[in-house]
Amino acid sequence: MKIHQQGIRLPAKCRGFHLITQEVRQVLLQYTDIQSGMCQVFIRHTSASLTINENADPTVRKDFEMYFNKTVPENDPQYLHDDEGPDDMPAHLKAALLGSSVLIPIVQGRLGLGTWQGIYLCEHRNHGGPRELIITVWGE
């Protein structure tokens, strides 16, 4: 079994749900020695998250943003953690709900995503800044 690990830095993105499948695929292209295995993508932040969902219709990503904003609203007077602005604590809660990593099988040297699946970077801050990912690939 072989294991590879690489960090990448994504440029700052506006608040919302953004497809990053191509960025992850670019990393996987470097590791042609792995035809069957797993790819873990981990985000090194507490106010952004990762998930896998619809990759074709951008309205799905807009609906995700709308749903999470309704579910975890800003300016709740009961939040104690508000030093970094009204979007900070909701961003932490949204990230906890979605998670900090995704695990994808590698099939014949490629990500084993379904036809309509893509990897989302979920930016929960108004001005989150660049985001760092660690991509770990292992297999045979």
From TrEMBL:
<dbReference type="Pfam" id="PF01894">
    <property type="entry name" value="YjbQ"/>
</dbReference>
<protein>
    <submittedName>
        <fullName>Secondary thiamine-phosphate synthase enzyme</fullName>
    </submittedName>
</protein>
<comment type="similarity">
    <text>Belongs to the UPF0047 family.</text>
</comment>
<dbReference type="InterPro" id="IPR035917">
    <property type="entry name" value="YjbQ-like_sf"/>
</dbReference>
<dbReference type="InterPro" id="IPR001602">
    <property type="entry name" value="UPF0047_YjbQ-like"/>
</dbReference>
